[in-house]
Request: fold
Amino acid sequence: MKIMATWSLRPGASLSETIGRFLAGKAAPPEGIAMLGRWHSMDLSCGFTLYETSDAALMYGIATQWADLLEIRNFVVIDDSEAGPILAKNFAK
Reply:
């Protein structure tokens, strides 16, 4: 499954510490999770990471490693090629 994670700095959290962890390589996903892309907002207020995995517990592990600094939300997502046929079947008139 594909998971889109959104993240932003927790109120009162240290931006310097967050950047330090990132630059130290601590944002790399563990074995069992493929990172398909990561994007950072230009104002440093938030970011987005697209993962692919079949193990939700591994995603939970990522969240626990950053929970002291980042507010993270994970969304299971599908792309247009998957959504289109379902929408056509269920909403076609």
In short: Strands lie at 2-9, 34-40, 47-52, 70-77.
